[in-house]
Predict the 3D structure of the following.
Amino acid sequence: MYKFHCLNNISPIGLKNFTSQYEQVDDIHDAQGILVRSASMQDMDFSDNLLAIARAGAGVNNIPLARCAEKGIVVFNTPGANANGVKELVFAGMLLASRDIVEGVDWVRANWNNPDIAKTAEKEKKQFAGTELEGKKIGIIGLGAIGVRVANTAVNFGMDVYGYDPYVSVDSAWHLSRKITHVIRIEDIFSECDFITIHVPLLDSTRKMINADAIRQMKKGVILINMARDLLVDEEAVIEAIDEGKIRRYVSDFPNPTVAGKRGCITTPHLGASTEESEVNCAKMAVKELRDYLENGNITNSVNYPRCDMGVCQAVSRIGIFHKNQANMITNFTRIMGAEAVNIAEMSNKSRGEVAYTLIDTDNKVSSAVIRQLGNVDGVYRVRIVK
């Protein structure tokens, strides 16, 4: 029986994908798997029972990834599961910003008790006149699951689409419309585009990537969309640029004291993935990832360990070894197992940066003595008996 704990409310439709082999527990220390959305886990103590954390969403800045890696705890996210919900919010933000809809709605609310509101509106509406999306240039920074959807939809809106992503995956490239211009310099996005939207993860290398220097290169009247993470943008520099007339509107899904209620800012309360469909999709994917790892030792969509998939184990036993990515690790593992007459039927070794994961199927049971010896190898974080 596997045990799991939900730190946040997770879609019950997704949780139905757990089988009768799984039990939801109230005590987090009893759980082998944790499902989480936005709850902070940075200062949490993890029990030795914990094997994996599945984030029902894309961002994982609420999870201590390095500490989990060193404890052999696999952290998953659900890339693409909420992509359509975020994409639609991007276009909602673009329309709100370009058509001055928010100010227009506020005017109507302020004049609701005017018996001549219809006649007055005809006189006042010119102050809310905006621009259309068709024919405008949009720059998309990051062509992952969300960025690709935004790019393709922008083509259908009749926009000229520029995409920037030096690490675009083969899968994303296959799904991109041929009408999209793939630029190799982010400066071309800044200088050419009427709309700029950001779809990259928050890393040390991307923190405040939209800063005063980037803004200086942008066209006057640019509309900036940020549905990814607020810390990707130097928002104080954005406010200054709005006051100077450089940025026309800043649309963000992350309310904070810097932008909330400020002139020229349209801020939504983190609604990107807050649709019924997105929550269901994220929950389903998170449960699928968690089950495949707990039952088979396979890793898909992990953010702190490499992808590794050996399917369902057909051999007698399967073990997973989490370790440093350094020389002679496989030699040590095979030496220990060979000395104990453990025959290896199949093996996969994958690395990611400083960490690695080795999955081994054997033709006979692996004794507790062998497990201890493997765990004592210098550089091994954890040894897990999968089967």
Q: What stands out?
A: The longest helix spans residues 276-296.
